[in-house]
Amino acid sequence: MNLIIGSHVSFNNTSQLVGSVKEALNYGENTFMFYTGAPQNTKRSEIKDGLTLEAYNIMKENNINLEIHISTQECTLNSEAVKFYKEEGVKRVVLARESSKEDIKNIIAETNMDIEVFVHGAMCTCYSGRCMLSNYMTNRDSNRGGCAQVCRWEFDTDNGINLSIMPKDLNMVPFIKAQIDLGVASFKIEGRMRSIYYVSTVLLA
Q1: With 0-12 CB in 10 A as exposed, 13-18 as middle and 19+ as buried, what is 28?
Q2: For a 10 Å CB count at each end of the chain, is N or C smaller?
Q3: How much is the pLDDT for 200?
Q4: Distance separating alpha carbons of residues 32 and 53, to the nearest angstrom
Q5: What SS3 class is residue 95?
Q6: DSSP conformational letter for 116
Q7: DSSP string, the chain
Q8: Residue 114 carries which DSSP code?
Q9: pLDDT-based confidence at 36, cuts 50/70/90?
Q10: Each residue of 133-174: pLDDT tens digit?
Q11: pLDDT score of 63 more than 80
């Protein structure tokens, strides 16, 4: 079992974070901390410590010597992009949610890279969550963990029919074995604005 400290958990200071990690380790649990947003220029200087980053050059600029994973928000859909990241020292790429079975198969075969794919969660209206609707309509940054999921709202139309622009959610649970056979290294459940109960329900499916 892994303890994942996400954006829904806040710490008032570094000592609280360190204390929580030490407590988890005392129980023999692994701890991971992720940063998967799109850093703005004004926020770049805040990124100092061990984080999994979407923008991998931030790690280079700050001499952070950690394993680098590329977020799904990079919209990686082909082997040439994965090869580029591999040459840059990236350990794992989380493919775009729009990747097909053939895409996944070919990318793994052509790159021999650790590949992670989504198996459950929203199929965002824009490619892999690169959406500005939440920012524009609620001032909540969708690329920094604050998505208001505006695409799920119902909008009035001229003909009186309520309309939502949200595609059906992704559910690849029945195909996990097939993806393991393809060589997928890791599976991802969408956790944005989700509770621990949601995640546990999916894991028990």
Answers
A1: exposed
A2: N
A3: 82
A4: 12
A5: coil
A6: E
A7: -EEEE-TT---SSHHHHHHHHHHHHHTT-EEEEB--S---GGGGGG--SS-B-SSTHHHHHTT--S--EE-GGG---SHHHHHHHHHTT--EEE--TT--HHHHHHHHHHH--EEEEEEEE---SSGGG---HHHHHHS--GGGT----GGGS-B--TTS--B--PPPPEE-GGGHHHHHHHT--EEEE--TT--HHHHHHHHT-
A8: E
A9: low
A10: 888 889 887 776 678 888 888 888 888 888 888 878 888 989
A11: no
pLDDT digits (tens, 9 = 90+) for 112-130: 999 999 898 888 777 766 7
Choose among 36, 3, 11, 13: nearest CA to 147.
36
> Between β-strands 69-70 and 30-33, what pairing exists: parallel, antiparallel or unpaired?
unpaired
Q: Is 139 left (phi over 0), alpha (psi -120 to 50) or beta?
A: left
* Collapsed DSSP state (helix, strand, coil) of residue 55: coil
Which tokens hold the place of 91?
A: 């350990």
